[in-house]
Write a structure and sequence with these properties.
The protein is mainly α. The chain has 7 helices and no strands. Helix 1 crosses helix 3 and helix 2 crosses helix 3.
Length: about 120
Amino acid sequence: MEIVEANIDYKLIGQRIKEARMKKNWSQEKLSEAIDVAVAFLSRAERGGTAINLKRLSQISIALDVPLEELVTGIVVEGKDYLDKEFYDLLKQCSKDKQKLIYNIARIVAGVSFV
């Protein structure tokens, strides 16, 4: 059996944890108490300075009432706004010409005719 090593972006996961924590109006202290870790660990995790195992991510997910997949991938497949933020962030980085090209490709994929 072949072992595939995944590249995990802990900085991005940390940003999502911080966003979820702030959205709930929780301090780092409150979250660290809820999951029984040191504030210093949580601070490093939010900056992407330390790896977070699945058990700890699950605890954070439960404490913040955020789906685990949202912390890991940034999306929830069942959500009505599936990939909205990702598309928006991607488009912000593109020139107007590239945005128009992406829009036209999306229209073709969606089966929408051009006017």
